[in-house]
Amino acid sequence: MTVTEARPRTVTADVRVVRRRLGPGRRxxxxxxxxxxxxxxxxxxxxxxxxxxxxxxxxxxxxVVAFGExxxxxxxxxxxxxxxQRAALGLGFGVAAGGVLAVISGLSRFGExxxxxxxxxxxxxxxxxxxxxxxxxxxIGQEMKIVTIALISLVPIYVHTHxxxxxxxxxxxELAETLDIGRGEFVRHVVLPGALPGFLLGMRFAVTSSxxxxxxxxxxxxxxGIGHMITLAEQYGQTDVIVVGLVIYGIFxxxxxxxxxxxxxxxxxxxxxxxx
Amino acid sequence: MATDTRGxxxxxxxVRVRDLHRSFSESGGVLNGLDLDIAPGEFVALIGRSxxxxxxxxxxxxxxxxxxxxxxxxEVPASVSVVFQxxxxxxxxxxxxxxxxxxxxxxxxxxxxQALAEVGLEGxxxxxxxxxxxxxxxxxxxxxxxxxxxxxxxxDEPFGALDALTRLRMHALLRKLCEAHRPAVLLVTHDVDxxxxxxxxxxxxxxxxxxxxxxxxxxxxxxLRSFLLEELEIR
Lengths: 276, 235
Prior knowledge:
The complex is a heterodimer.
Chain A: H1 2-5, H2 8-11, H3 31-49, H4 60-73, H5 76-107, H6 109-124, H7 131-138, H8 142-166, H9 170-178, H10 183-217, H11 226-236, H12 239-267
Helix pairs in contact in A: 4-12, 5-6, 5-8, 5-10, 5-11, 7-8, 8-10, 10-12, 11-12
Chain B: E1 15-23, E2 31-38, E3 43-47, H1 54-62, E4 69-75, E5 80-83, H2 95-99, H3 108-118, H4 134-146, E6 152-156, H5 164-181, E7 184-188, H6 192-198, E8 201-206, E9 209-215, H7 221-231
Parallel strand pairs in B: 3-7, 3-8, 5-6, 6-7
Antiparallel strand pairs in B: 1-2, 1-4, 8-9
């Protein structure tokens, strides 16, 4: 009697046969920060021991000092906000246009014949090489900068969304046909969610591309922005300020990419993949 | 061999097929002049060896064969629903959203909940499809079909991928649901016992025409089984 009433976990041992794991395994807590922090540690150690001379790369603590100076004396916050606004506007237009074009070209053969060719041609022309043309069309103001960033982020969104959309299993389209749903509902319930993994991958590339575009366009006649700050620092030979700018670009990119991945993990909860 | 059923249906048939031809290549047809009537509320099982045109016929009735060459007349009710071998739940929509997909009108969600309860999936409305077992997924797809109250239910080996025990439970569920909703049913299956257990009428397809057409009522299952196996040239 007493034996059967005993709690099993106090008496039974846990003996298992466990297979060797082939997937990446469990998540490491704060895994996000390990790589960047290691990089910072190597940089600090190099600067402290003199292996990295200040002429080559400013020491991290000097960058912090320069950051403080820029913040108090040269409106660093204003520069950051100005750059962010430019990147966000360009990215927004680019993502919207790329997504819409991908859906049109993915769903209609006619749309594909109109859209796909020009975008593939555009892909092989570096957007940065188009800047002189854009300057002629839009001047050297904000429009040129936003158009350039939009175009540069449109391409990865288009390519990956289109690819994701075309990769949706045809049996779901067949199911939708038997349910008599309209084209709008088909897009909303089958096409968009099915293409979402592709879109999010495109988004990761687009975010990085938009920052790349930002770096270049801000060299042209900007009166504010991180690129403007770097251009000035270049003229005055302030390496530490240049590094401040680079670090800020890096942080932008890293945060944006992390945000996209985080969103991806939440909205793709329906998938069971090696990621989880 | 074929038993004549014409004249037995007093009302307009739910499904009427005349001289149906379908072929995937120049050399030979998959369906060669097939005739078929299904009465409203009648449960017809369609058996036949592989490649005899069972799925081709079902897809023709479902309107899913627009790219297949052929001719003939097909009349089906306005509301037709298909149950596939795989459940075809959209993996990115929760179970309830899958069931009410494309359903219009007020109370669609409430009807979806009722349909899920009817197939024994109450409480799983918010689950993702991958969280359901194979049998549960197929039950959800049955709920998705029934919530539309079809006059014709087309099922293409719906239990083919399930284990034997789950299949028996699904048989009982399908019979119960069909008795409650009374759609005409065309069930494509490989399984002679499944055909006998579920249907009012069994049709044996061979070389794209009806080879045998027998009523289940009034015959002993053992005798019917050996007759059907003979028609399938298994004995």
